[in-house]
Design a protein that fits this description.
The chain has helices at 88-93, 120-126, 217-220, 248-253, 269-287; strands spanning 8-12, 21-26, 29-36, 39-43, 48-52, 79-84, 100-104, 110-117, 132-137, 143-149, 171-175, 181-190, 193-200, 205-210, 225-231, 237-244, 258-262. 14% of the residues lie in helices and 38% in strands. It has a twelve-stranded antiparallel β-barrel. A three-stranded antiparallel β-sheet has the order 2-3-4, with no helix packed on it. Strand 3 and strand 4 (39-43) form a beta hairpin. The chain has five helices and 17 strands. It is mainly β and 292 residues long. It is globular.
Length: 292
């Protein structure tokens, strides 16, 4: 179920009875206390009541013929934004946790919630080279998409220029609904840079995207990094995948990154979903690193 963040705000009005709040009579005057259940906190100001502020989500859309269930809203979009959530335990201990992400539209409304599902030992020992399964759920908690990348020993951007063995290059599949493959992303070879090929369900190449030729760019760059998605022949740009600069503090202490991907609004929704999957491939290949 998508986890929704909430915060407590105070607004004028009568004191509300809510779970976790206790009322006590002290010398004839009513006093409201708040805190965890059974553990009252400091007094609530008289005449104020707490209000829950929920994450904004997109409205539900009726089923569309030929569109995987749960992806209907993508048919209206030409851009989505992905934000990785900061894990407090990972931040202070260095213990690698399952990644969590939100996928939003340009107005900040949440479309999907994504949670990684990987083996704990593989997560600690293999770092960003680990295999992963990303479970993508909609705002009603339904799993609408699954993104799977198998673990491959010695795989990574440094192996992209190896011509002798295809087994050390990443291969990722996108399923929507889970169990039904709608696209693939394959890492390839291009001199000093990785090149990623986006394929349809029949493994026919559709788009290509070239990674950075300089590894330092993904570590030291203090501005947005653009990855251009083009047709196979490279003659037409289809979209742009952008790693957004999150600021000095966030970049220094955390590997929780921000991405965006743009594409034509009339692009096949299955290819849009595959390009969303490409964001996770780029994140793990170039930006999922431990911060010192």
């Amino acid at each position: 179920m998508a986890e929704q963040a909430s915060e407590v705000a105070f607004a004028p009005g009568p004191v509300a009875q809510q779970p976790g709040y206790q009322q006590q009579d002290t010398k004839g005057q009513q006093q409201t206390q708040y805190g965890t259940k059974g553990q009252p906190g400091p007094p609530l100001p008289p005449g104020f009541q707490p209000q829950q502020v929920e994450v904004q989500t997109v409205p539900a859309i009726p089923p569309i013929p030929g569109c995987p269930p749960g992806l209907e809203y993508l048919t209206q979009l030409d851009q989505v934004l992905m934000r990785q959530l900061i894990e407090i335990v990972e931040l202070f201990t260095g213990w690698e946790m399952n990644n969590k992400y939100t996928i939003n539209n340009t107005m900040g409304q949440q479309i999907f919630y994504v949670k990684e599902d990987t083996d704990c030992m593989e997560r600690q020992c293999c770092g960003p080279n680990r295999g992963f399964t990303m479970n993508v759920t909609d705002n009603m908690g339904r799993e609408v998409m699954r993104i799977v990348r198998d673990f491959k020993c010695f795989a990574g951007p440094a192996c992209s220029c190896c011509k002798s063995c295809d087994s050390c290059r990443y291969d990722m599949q996108v399923e929507a609904p889970p169990g039904e493959v709608i696209g693939y992303v394959k890492q390839g070879q291009y001199f000093l840079a990785s090149i990623f090929t986006v394929m349809d369900a029949q493994r026919h190449p559709v788009f290509t995207m070239k990674g950075p030729t300089c590894p330092i760019q993904t570590v030291c760059c203090t501005e947005d990094i653009n990855f251009h998605v083009t047709t196979i022949d490279g003659n037409q740009e289809i979209g742009v995948l952008r790693k957004q600069w999150a600021g000095v503090l966030r970049e220094m202490i955390s590997d929780a990154d921000k991405f965006g991907v743009s594409f034509p609004v009339d692009l096949d929704v299955k290819l849009k979903a595959t390009l969303i999957g490409l964001m996770f491939m780029i994140d793990f290949c170039f930006f999922e690193r431990k911060q010192k």
